[in-house]
Amino acid sequence: MLTVSTVNVNGLRAAAKKGFSEWFEATSADVVACQEVRADPGVLPDALREPPGWHTVHAACATKGRNGVCLYSRIEPESVRVGFGEAEFEDSGRYVEMWLPRVVVGSLYLPSGEVGTPRQEEKERFMDTFLPYLATLRDKASSEGKEVLVVGDWNIAHAEVDLKNWKANRKNSGFLPEERAWLSRVFDELGYVDVQRHLDPEGPGPYTWWSYRGRAFDNDAGWRIDYQIATPGLAQRCTSMVVERAESYDKRWSDHAPVTATYEI
After folding, report:
1. Residue 10 assigned as binding residue
2. Cis before residue 41, ω within 30 degrees of 0?
3. Contact of 154 with 183, CB cutoff 8 Å
4. How far is CA 208 from the centre of its chain?
5. Which residue intervals define the domain Endonuclease/exonuclease/phosphatase in the entry (predicted)?
6. Average pLDDT of span 160-181
7. Which entry of 30, 153, 162, 226 is annotated as an active-site residue?
8. Residue 250: CA atoms inside 13 Å, Cβ hemisphere, count?
9. Cα separation of 49 and 40, whole Å?
């Protein structure tokens, strides 16, 4: 069995002070993927940089205080990779992967975007270049007898059932028709599987992100933008998946919740 958790921590050092450290110590996951770490490994305390019993790889952003992804694994990786070969995003802290004995696990923080700004243009360039990489990764892993699992904050709600107020967000980044169509290509053209929807085709949700503004969390007015996306062979072997939503607003240590799945490998 392989249990994998993914969470956008919204600043790893801040999250650690609010409950992430206790969650991490208690988790039964074999692999934990974090996004929006927002810290160079050199400034992280030992318990976050290289916790005992874990193999760790960090991909920091060249711009201090931005982005950042990491992977913690109880299983020793055969190799690791930072970035996906695209020069613009190589030091942006948006993608890192571990090649484990039977599966390749990637931690992704796809740009959030903002309509009508350079941020949206950056998101579009990222998607344009990441799509062919996903195809290459799938084929390379298959040639070595491995499955692929790319987890993280994809910053796109794929369908109406993936966010509470979908009608009001049709012209907002994260739910634009072209973004949703791109994610459909990941599934339909490349053959990857949205593991949550494999287990629960109907929805709604479960949501993984809630704005800190208003009463979004209390009203469960969220978005499902944190995914575990796998090659078909692995997706078929998922036995359980849960969004570890905080019990109450005051017990949150991020605006996202961990998404945890267990696979038979």
Report:
1. no
2. no
3. yes
4. 11
5. 6-256
6. 96
7. 153
8. 0
9. 9
The model's confidence at residue 213, banded by pLDDT at 50, 70 and 90, is confident
Task: State the Cα–Cα distance between residues 191 and 49, nearest whole angstrom.
Answer: 34
Residue 55 among known ligand-binding residues = no
For residues 193 and 88, give the distance between their C-alpha atoms in angstroms, rounded to a whole number: 27
Identify the H or E element spanning 239.
strand 238-243
| Active site (annotated) includes residue 194 | no
Output the pLDDT for position 214. 86
Q: Is 212 a catalytic residue?
A: no
Q: Please enumerate in sequence order all residues whose Cβ is within 8 A of that of 178, keeping only pairs 6 or more positions apart, or say none.
A: 124
- DSSP readout, 150-172? EEEE-----SGGGBTT-GGGTTS
Q: Which of 95, 109, 207, 227 is catalytic?
A: 109
In the predicted model, what is the mean pLDDT of the chain?
97
Q: At CB < 8 A and 24+ separation, what contacts does 117-124 make?
A: 119/173, 120/173, 123/155, 123/173, 123/179, 124/178
pTM above 0.85, yes or no: yes
Using pLDDT thresholds of 50, 70 and 90, give the confidence band for residue 35. very high
Q: Which of 1, 5, 14 is nearest to 255 (CA)?
A: 14
Known binder of ligand: residue 165? no
**CA-closest candidate to residue 228, choices 256, 196, 263:** 196
Residue 175: pLDDT over 90 = yes
Residue 226 designated active-site: no
Q: Choosing from 30, 72, 207, 256, which is the catalytic residue?
A: 256
Q: Which amino acid makes up residue 148?
A: V
> Token pair of 5, please?
């958790």
Q: What domains can you pick out in the chain, each with its CATH number? A: 2-263 (3.60.10.10)
